[in-house]
Amino acid sequence: MSALLVRHEANRLGRDIAVGDIHGHFTRLRAALDRARFDPAVDRLFSVGDLVDRGPESEQVLDWLALPWFHAVRGNHEDIAIRYAKGNPVDQTSYIANGGAWFVTQPLARRPVYAEAFARLPLAREIETPAGPVGIVHADSPVRDWSRLVWSLRLWRAARDRAMWSRDRLQGENADGVAGLRALVVGHTPVEDPVVLGNVHHIDTGGWMQDGRFTLLDLATLQAIPPMG
Ligand SMILES: [Mn+2]
């Protein structure tokens, strides 16, 4: 079983940057990174998951997951692919409607290649920054105190589901925040501009959508990186 939480030491050489849901738009992501002068020699990119489905380049995900500077957590779309490849019940019509056609049409032998790569992704990451630890999950923290995260994820499917699927905090405008972290960064629910509730940063500004853009959040400053001309 893969690790539920992976911890990263502070990056003393470059920047640590988080990006929202990618959904098969790696060319657009590459352009956003170029505009931010992302330097793969020293910078690191942390993805909140949902790497695949909806966009045209989902099959590139394996190349991205192999990059030494790219670190993703598992999103609900990776979760669906894992279940589908295992033969667990997945509503195929709704899967296709949510962008999963590329996976449904993969040759049978290819499905486990993707599913195994997705199953290796942790549900959470924790990155040390000068001002304290920053957490990353796809949708939400299932615990109010981050120190209880691993225990909770290990014991309860409901906690794992909440980490990958919940929209409750954003929809309820819950500003309680998560103790034990400087900030938590999540995606999953599209927002026009980044939304901060307590110390929880919602950064899926729809880089995969027609009129959206990728927000690149600098984890040291917790500010979006403005594109450079
Ligand atoms: Mn999602």
Automatic annotation (TrEMBL):
It holds the Pfam family Metallophos. Residues 73-78 form the Serine/threonine specific protein phosphatases domain. One of its GO terms (biological process) is RNA decapping. It comes from the Bacteria. GO terms for molecular function: bis(5'-nucleosyl)-tetraphosphatase (symmetrical) activity; phosphatase activity. InterPro entries: Ap4A_hydrolase, Calcineurin-like_PHP, Metallo-depent_PP-like, Ser/Thr-sp_prot-phosphatase. GO terms for cellular component: cytoplasm. This is Serine/threonine protein phosphatase 1. It comes from Pigmentiphaga kullae. The lineage of its organism: Bacteria, Pseudomonadati, Pseudomonadota, Betaproteobacteria, Burkholderiales.
